From TrEMBL:
One of its GO terms (molecular function) is ATP binding. Pfam families: GatC. It catalyses: L-glutamyl-tRNA(Gln) + L-glutamine + ATP + H2O = L-glutaminyl-tRNA(Gln) + L-glutamate + ADP + phosphate + H(+); L-aspartyl-tRNA(Asn) + L-glutamine + ATP + H2O = L-asparaginyl-tRNA(Asn) + L-glutamate + ADP + phosphate + 2 H(+). One of its GO terms (biological process) is glutaminyl-tRNAGln biosynthesis via transamidation. NCBIfam families: gatC. This is Aspartyl/glutamyl-tRNA(Asn/Gln) amidotransferase subunit C. Allows the formation of correctly charged Asn-tRNA(Asn) or Gln-tRNA(Gln) through the transamidation of misacylated Asp-tRNA(Asn) or Glu-tRNA(Gln) in organisms which lack either or both of asparaginyl-tRNA or glutaminyl-tRNA synthetases. The reaction takes place in the presence of glutamine and ATP through an activated phospho-Asp-tRNA(Asn) or phospho-Glu-tRNA(Gln). Its EC number is 6.3.5.-. It comes from Amaricoccus macauensis. Coiled coil: none annotated. Keywords: ATP-binding, Ligase, Nucleotide-binding, Protein biosynthesis, Transferase. The gene is gatC.
Length: 95
């Protein structure tokens, strides 16, 4: 599939990317190349191939799902510009 300058202009507009008029021809070529590569990928026979989440087989570590306070409130609050009674203090925004 080939992309023309008008289509490249439309894609740039939809992506909210400012592209100079002189660069539209190059962008159209780049987009055409991407679509060509996608067409090549469609031709690959993947029947019976299991999807994978990583190129190396690995098991994700499991942990017990328990609610905690993190155990380090003092360290976290030490970074706050203002903290009182164990909480962040923020400016009042509602009258």
């Amino acid at each position: 599939m080939s992309i023309d300058k008008d289509t490249a202009r439309r894609v740039a507009h939809l992506a909210r990317i400012e592209v100079a008029e002189t660069d539209l021809e190059h962008l159209a070529g780049e987009l055409s190349g991407i679509l060509g590569f996608m067409e090549q990928l469609r031709e690959v026979d993947v029947e019976g191939i299991e999807p994978m989440t990583s190129v190396t087989p690995m098991e994700l570590p499991w942990r017990e799902d328990v609610v905690t306070d993190g155990g380090n409130a003092e360290r976290v609050l030490a970074n706050a510009p203002d903290a009182r009674d164990g909480f962040f203090t923020v400016p009042k925004v509602v009258e």
